Predict the 3D structure of the following.
Amino acid sequence: MKLNVKNIRYLGPDDWRVLTATEQGSRNHEVVPTPLISQLASIRSGSGVNKCISNLAKIGLIAKVKNAKYDGYRLTYGGLDYLALHSHTKASTVYSVGNQIGVGKESDIYVCASETGKQLVLKIHRLGRISFRTVKANRDYLRNRSSASWMYMSRLAAVKEFEFMKALRKEGFPVPEPVAQNRHTVVMGLIDAFPMRQISNVGDPASLYAELLSLIVRLAQYGLIHGDFNEFNILIEEKTNEETGKVTLIPTIIDFPQMVSIDHTNAEYYFDRDVACIKRFFERRFGFTSDEPGPSFNDSIKSITKRLDVEVEASGFSKKMAKELDAYMKEHGVDGDAGEIKRDDEDELDEGEEEDDDEQDEGEADTSTSPSNAHTLTSQMTILELRDNDPLPSLSDIKPQFHPAASIAPSISTKAAKAKAGWAI
């Protein structure tokens, strides 16, 4: 599902009411009956509701299900995207959205900006995208909260990531700055760095290796295991000392939906897998092999500094929510990138096999795009909201002056005049 925000500015208040009503109805209905949408939207004019439904269906925010037993609509990922972006806009968190800078099996990453021009990252969780092949054979997950719907699960993943990111940032861990979370989206600070999988050579692999393993141990000492600690989820930033000219590599950890507590049944397995992923990558990519064994899970948890897993649970991401998300991921094979050496090829295959209702454009950007050239990524951002103080072109620029011959074309077109005045076209 490719995010397209070009129509978001033109939705009216009634359109938002109908879209929100469809989302509310989706909590108990796979296909929301049209009368229920009308009732929840509370729009006086019945024809007004039908007009809004038609408008929303045309741009793919809601969809009619074929062969349904009754007249109704379902909310699409596009509709959920618009609702989340609308909330971020109203909260003055996101003002414009730019290019896609990454895509994972269960998420999409976009560069965005605030009203002040600060560059941010918008992560959209899309649990269910890859697992649709499994879900087609088992639609029961849509009918009850125990196995949950894709919307609910995507929201859980976003809540979990945001809460863990806040807790880790507070304790000084190298993670992006958490800015906001709404529905299935997380807004975070933009890191001027490259994914470690794109780096072919480093001057001192031993020091970077030691720092990454120390992060795994430190997480365990704070009661957490990343569960997906590998070259796909580590960003490397270069910082140069102006006096000495020495370049220092600073790692940043991303992607936390699969983070687990040290009390988890398979905690030791996930810890060992994280360590093995780093060892394997450094051996294959940089030809570096450490002489020292370990670290081990039991040694790492001998000295517990703080239980962040308990703090996050108390802050809102409960044990029940964690169990539901964990069960969903196991049921549908969402088990991170660990051990998947051919991740890029698999992503391309999976993207082509998505649900027909969530087709993507063939020309989607490569997943290896780095945010390091963020100034170019934000050059063609789409503003999400129309403002009354937007500059207007002069009437003389738009309307051609009267000419007796009536055959002479105007000196400037309407589109060119709007562009000249600074309109986002």
